[in-house]
From TrEMBL:
Residues 4-241 form the ABC transporter domain. This is Vitamin B12 import ATP-binding protein BtuD. The keyword ATP-binding applies. GO terms for molecular function: ABC-type transporter activity; ATP binding; ATP hydrolysis activity. Pfam families: ABC_tran, TOBE_2.
Length: 377
């Protein structure tokens, strides 16, 4: 299986709009890499360039040692010669072909002999668990089944690289969850290199082996999901990955908050801070105790007032006012408090993330003051 490398890739659409700016990205061999970011950040454009459906304005794309695009060297390999399978949001199944016909389609185009074609299609449909729908037409299938057929059609031709553009976004919440599990299983079974575009951080967190976060055409960070979650390279990643998002407390001029000041005083006792712009605390890192109870030492703690309690069944999301700042806490024990009640909230030092005035991660307070997590450049 090949490693995909994008080097200095730029895409300017007609009219000068810079959709992708100087992108250096490595998609490791056999990885499940999610391109994650808000609408319009350049994810689809990046995927389409890997597929060969768009040509870069500048830069180079290689798979293994094969150059697929090089503006400088005048190389462009068309999509059908890239050995990549594509699935888009709208599945694009042929309505006049049965499930079997749709799944065999790519094999027919490649002139695979009939007996092999039938066997490969059956195997692919079994892999995505819709083999019992073989003789139905797409209109006779549910959305989830159609999505599986689209995947089977791609798997049948056994491409080295699978490119998926928001393939689950048309499914309801339950099917989406089911398909995430299926995709993860298929990835484990086939070992294929998968590039998956999504704006849903939960989708990326649950499926990916690597997440590449983009913002406004620029790569922000590439890392395995939990590493990104624990050590976001900058404030944008910290707020984009996680739900509810990380609490961000202004702790630098001109927007210094009272809580920011209190956090810095606590942090200052623990070492050199650099020049912080804000402090981040994940909701699940913000612990709750009764108003009169002391927080463990050493930990930062502060009095808080409950604004809202949102039970979700498995946990409680508690909205708090801490000095002048609103924060979210997630707790797996009933907080036993309601709006207006006083609590004490606290967080261990290693759960306080420090970001510089430009948003770049400085570190957490139990780490060396050197930046960690690395912003990709
Ligand atoms: N064919 C095009 N011509 C001109 N501009 C385009 C074209 N395709 C995309 N863009 C612009 O390029 C930017 C990046 O678009 P892209 O579709 O890659 O983003 P995205 O992150 O995939 O967004 P979404 O999640 O909404 O699909 C956007 O500002 C978009 O309007």
């Amino acid at each position: 299986m090949p490693t995909i490398t994008l080097s200095g890739v730029v895409k300017n659409y007609a009219g000068g709009h810079a959709a992708v700016k100087d992108l250096d990205l490595t998609v490791p061999d056999g990885s499940f890499t999610c391109l994650l970011g808000p609408s319009g950040c350049g994810k689809t454009t990046t995927l389409r360039m890997i597929a060969g459906l768009e040509q870069p304005t500048l830069g180079e794309i290689t798979v293994g040692d094969r150059v697929l695009d090089s503006v400088e060297r005048g190389v462009y390999v068309p999509p059908e010669k890239r050995d990549m399978g594509l699935v888009f949001q709208n599945y694009a199944l042929w309505p006049h072909l049965t499930v079997r016909g749709n799944t065999e389609f790519g094999l027919r185009m490649r002139k695979v002999p009939a007996a092999r074609r039938v066997a490969r299609a059956k195997e692919a449909l079994e892999k995505v668990r819709v083999a019992d729908c073989m003789d139905r037409y797409p209109s006779q299938l549910s959305g989830g089944q159609q999505q599986r057929v689209a995947l089977a059609r791609m798997l049948a031709v056994d491409p080295g690289v699978l490119l998926l553009d928001e393939p689950l976004s048309n499914l309801d919440a339950r099917l989406r969850l089911e398909m995430r599990t299926e995709l993860k299983r298929i990835h484990d079974e086939t070992g294929a290199t998968i590039v998956f575009v999504t704006h849903d951080q939960m989708e990326a967190m649950t499926m990916a082996t690597h997440i590449a976060v983009m913002c406004d055409g620029e790569l922000q960070q590439v890392a395995p999901p939990m590493e990104m979650y624990r050590r976001p390279a900058n404030r944008f990643v910290a707020e984009f990955v996680g739900s509810p998002p990380m609490n961000i407390v202004p702790a630098g001029e001109p927007a210094m908050s009272d809580l920011g000041g209190a956090l810095l005083r606590y942090a200052g006792k623990r070492g050199e801070l650099g020049e912080p712009g804000c402090v981040g605390i994940r909701p699940e890192a913000l612990r709750l105790a009764g108003a009169g109870e002391a927080a463990p030492d050493p930990a930062w703690s502060e009095e808080a007032v409950v604004e809202t309690v949102l039970p979700t069944g498995a946990s409680w999301t508690v909205q708090l006012r801490v000095l002048d700042t609103r924060m979210f806490a997630i707790t797996h024990e009933d907080p036993g408090a309601g709006p207006g009640d006083a609590l004490r909230c606290w967080a261990p030092a290693q759960c306080l993330h420090l970001f510089g005035a430009d948003g770049t991660r400085i570190g957490a307070w139990d780490e060396a003051s050197a930046p960690v997590g690395g912003v990709a450049s």
